[in-house]
Amino acid sequence: MSTSDRRPFLPFAILGVVAVVAVIGVVVKLQQPSADVVTAPAVEPASSAKVATVTIQHAQGESVVPLNPRRVVVFDLAALDILQALGVDAVVGVAGDQFPLHLAPFADAKFARIGTLFEPNYEAINAARPDLIITGGRSSAKYANLSRIAPTVDVPMGGARYIDTVVANTEMLSRIFGKEEKARELVDGLRQSLAKLRETTASRGKGLVVLVTGGRISAYGPGSRFGVVHEDFGVPVAADGLKASLHGEAIGSEFIREKNPDWLFVIDRDASMGQQGGAKQVLDNELVRQTTAWTKGQVVYLDPLNAYLIGGGLQAVGLLRDQVAQAYATPAP
Amino acid sequence: MRLFVAGIVILFLALGSLLIGVGDVSWHALVTPSPDEQALQLLVISRIPRLLAVMLVGTSLGVAGLLLQMLVRNRFVEPSTAGSAESASMGLMVAAVLAPQLPVVGKMLVAAAFAMGGTALFLLILRRIPLRSVLIVPLVGLVLGSVFDSVTTFYAYRLDLLQSVNAWKTGDFSTILRGRYELLWLTLGLTCCAYVAADRFTVAGMGESFTTNLGMNYTRIMGLGLLIVSLVTAMVVVTVGMVPFLGLLVPNLVSMFTGDNARKAIPWVAVGGAGFVLLCDIIGRVVRFPYEIPGATIAGVLGSVLFLYVLLRRDARVG
């Protein structure tokens, strides 16, 4: 009974499928031009005003961007940090909602939220009508998609050559906004202050950089994302052979005790995420307490937002430098 | 007798593990008196606590796995495939967000409550499923666990807690020191509880009507088992993180020669579990010396290989 009932429906079923496919096809066709209409206004000001452009070499190739763009959206906190230092006020949208103290003004609602550090909100970006998008670090992977909306530059991450990257990024961004002179001034200042810091740190004992998260400890050496402490701040290395891997090397407290650093630089990752920092609780144990760093009170909790979240900002690196300089300035008790 | 031999083997492994670490601890250093007694200190502060934590986790998680398998009457279930570990981890996140200042015991209790809820939900769903084939049961557990996990991951992502959540999802003994593992002693009490009540669990493993026919309270036995499994899971997740495959592999290997008698199986599972985790922890410490690989990672690799062997061996008894 069921077969005889169903058979006449078969042609209808096929017809139905065809109809659905056809409707989808039409909708897609219709959407194509409408999408063009949406993007058109974003491009128009640049082309109609015949603004000057500048060709920028960046981490993912070369982009022709408008000189002195008026509407900039920024994914990378390091780039945001540099733009602020340069005195650029063209930023209209920022990613994420965690900002260190010096970037706190960007938490204001007048700046469009264009997604997270990792994941762009394409609709919000379109609505912000940017004439320049800046990616870097965590958002670098989205470069290809974003560069279809507006000219995009990808700011390289700091790492093995930390300060060199900061300087290069500052110079690159200064060219876009015609702030070369200001950039030169800032970079010279930074280099001089670092040279001065290195004079103090070189002779005051060895240091170890550790990151604490979720109760686990990992160590970082030169060339890692926190290598700036050794390479540019000039702190001698307490543990040789640490590879420059992104997440550091998992260690136990025994490792810290054995390497016995004179200075322990701690990045409390959970604190950078607005959590109650548990690093002190993790490190305050019978083994770490035996190290020179602990007994002399030479444990420096680096600002987690500046050290972890920004990584490569001109001001952030300056603030870290100040933190280290201050720690070395206080006489050991 | 065979159990005694196995115990001796584990003892040797344990003594060996005491000598592995970044600091200098050797028999020589221990025997010769040095002015600062550094080796002895390291032994007391770091090595012995770590060894004890490893043993306690191995023992209790193995027995928890065995109990769960009896309660569910399925050999392919363990705390981390029945929603227990995932819900405990969810509870830990809730505690971390809402009450970050809570002491460890408080966090553990929250996690245990969640673990109990999650495991109970698993048992409830199983009761409602008409078709209880061998594969459906663990599948239901995996699906349920993934649901819990996705909720945890979603909120962890929104609250930027992913790295912390990952930390308690992978068991790692590197942070164990004197004063930081003592909660695990409670698992020993629970393991003993399980041993005392072993015959009841054996009977419960035969099914509800069988148990009731013998004049026993099936629900109460189930409740006790649920309590033990949840508390053990929560304690392990809170102090070191989850160790995969342990609760699945060890009871299955043991049942290959002891059968389904819990009183016979529990001592073997306890010894086997301790040995398995100890082996994994030692490998994790040696492979990249002086850095570490979490014991749970090693357990995942080693466990999957061994479990495939259990599945593929000739006389596989499934179910």
**Shape by Cα distribution of chain B:** globular
Give helix % range of chain A: 40-55%
Mean pLDDT reading of chain B: 88
Helicity level of chain B:
over 70%
The helix/strand series of chain B, from N terminus to C terminus, equals HHHHHHHHHHHHHH
How many DSSP H or I helices of chain B? 14
The biggest beta sheet of chain B, please?
A: none
SSE pattern of chain A, N- to C-terminal: HHEEEHEEHEHEHHEEHEHEHHHEHH
- How is the largest sheet of chain A built, in terms of strand order? 5-4-3-6-7
Number of helices of chain A: 14
What's the quaternary structure here? heterodimer
Q: How would you characterize the overall build of this protein?
A:
The complex is a heterodimer of chains A (333) and B (319). Chain A has 333 residues and is α/β, with parallel strands linked by helices. Chain A has helices at residues 2-6, 9-48, 77-86, 122-128, 143-146, 162-177, 180-201, 228-231, 253-259, 269-272, 279-283, 292-295, 304-310, 314-329; strands at 53-58, 61-66, 72-74, 91-94, 112-113, 132-136, 152-155, 207-213, 216-220, 249-251, 263-268, 299-302. The longest helix of chain A is centred in the N-terminal third of the chain and has 40 residues, at 9-48. Chain A is globular. By secondary structure, chain B is mainly α. Chain B contains 14 helices and no strands. In chain B, helix 8 (185-196) runs antiparallel to helix 11 (218-239). The longest helix of chain B has 35 residues, at 38-72. The radius of gyration of chain B is 20 Å and the shape is globular. Classes of the chains: A alpha/beta (333), B mainly alpha (319). Chain A binds chain B through residues 98, 213-217, 219, 249-255, 257-258, 269-270, 273-276, 282, 285-287, and chain B through 21-24, 42, 45-46, 96, 100-101, 159-161, 163-168, 172, 174-175, 177-180, 288, 290-294.
